[in-house]
TrEMBL record:
Listed name of the protein: GPI-anchor transamidase
Biological or metabolic pathway of the protein: Glycolipid biosynthesis; glycosylphosphatidylinositol-anchor biosynthesis
GO cellular component: GPI-anchor transamidase complex
Family note: Belongs to the peptidase C13 family.
GO biological process: one example: attachment of GPI anchor to protein
Pfam families: Peptidase_C13
UniProtKB keywords: GPI-anchor biosynthesis, Signal
GO MF annotations, alphabetized: GPI-anchor transamidase activity
UniProt organism field: Plasmodium falciparum (isolate Dd2)
Amino acid sequence: MIGKHVELEGRYKKEYIDRFFLEELRKHNYMNNNVILLSTSRHYFNYRHTTNLLIAYKYLKYFGDTMDKNILLMIPFDQACDCRNIREGQIFREYELFPSSHNKETKIENINLYENLNIDYKNNNVRDEQIRRVLRHRYDAFTPKKNRLYNNGNNEKNLFLYMTGHGGVNFSLKNSRI
């Protein structure tokens, strides 16, 4: 799929690439696509990483024709339920812009990204050992089916891994305090 994306990038304008890429994904059986969305940052001040992850989740779920059982969402810290979050149980794309009567002039729709959310791994369940188990498809007997990559008996699966957090070229910080 990456080769197809690069091929399309050379032929078409940037704004059409994502649409063509999603159409190409739809040609394949979407039941064979698994997605792991992983944030590597803990602590409340890394709110932006969780926001990026939830935006990708909503995009894949509603525009990418990916079913929720094919998506594993791993969030190591729950900013929505932190006592410093002034809007309890809610996460917004723009941290300082909440939906209210004052924002109706601004044309920016700032929706709550935390609603209709199925978090598979959170807090202390997001650790290196658990991530390796999920990637290798090797679970212990106590792992519920909803926390496993979907398998319909077909061994040929596509895996899309989206990681957000601190890092750079050739390294990634896991659960950093930055």
